[in-house]
Amino acid sequence: MLERTVEIALLLDSYENLLHERTRQVLKEYFSYDLSLNEIAERHSISKQAVSDQVKRGEEKLHSFEEALGLVGKKLAHGRAIQEALLQIEKFEREKNLESLSKAKELLKEVSDGL
C-alpha cells in the first residue's frame, strides 16, 4: 500500500489541477491524509461505495494523465541523473578523474535539455 500511496501522491502533485474538485479532495483524503473510505463518505455525505468508485476513477485518470504527459517519469529521471552527476563530481574531487567530471557534465546537460 505504501508504494501505491507514494505513486499516487507523486501523480497528484503533478496532475491534481486536472481533476474535478471532488475527486481531487477524495484522493487527497484517502492517500495523503490516510482517511478510511467510511470517514471520507461521512465527510462528503456519500456512500462508501461512491468513495471507492471515485478513488478508482481518480487513480485511473491520474495514470492516464501520466501516460499521456509523462511529467512524473521525467521528474524521477531528472532526479536520478542529478544524483548520479553529484556522485561523479564527488569522485572527481576524490580522485581528480577528469572522466568523472566529463560524465557529470554530460548528465547535467541531459537534464537541462529535458527541461
TrEMBL record:
Keywords on record: DNA-binding
Molecular function as annotated in GO: DNA binding
SUPFAM superfamilies per record: Sigma3 and sigma4 domains of RNA polymerase sigma factors
Pfam families xrefs: UPF0122
InterPro entries hit by this protein: RNA_pol_sigma_r3/r4-like, UPF0122, WH-like_DNA-bd_sf
Keyword DNA-binding on entry: yes
Keyword check for Transit peptide: no
Similarity comment: Belongs to the UPF0122 family.
PANTHER family assigned to the protein according to its UniProt record, in alphabetical order: UPF0122 PROTEIN CBO2450/CLC_2298, UPF0122 PROTEIN YLXM
Function statement: Might take part in the signal recognition particle (SRP) pathway. This is inferred from the conservation of its genetic proximity to ftsY/ffh. May be a regulatory protein.
Name of the molecule in the record: UPF0122 protein NCTC13150_00951
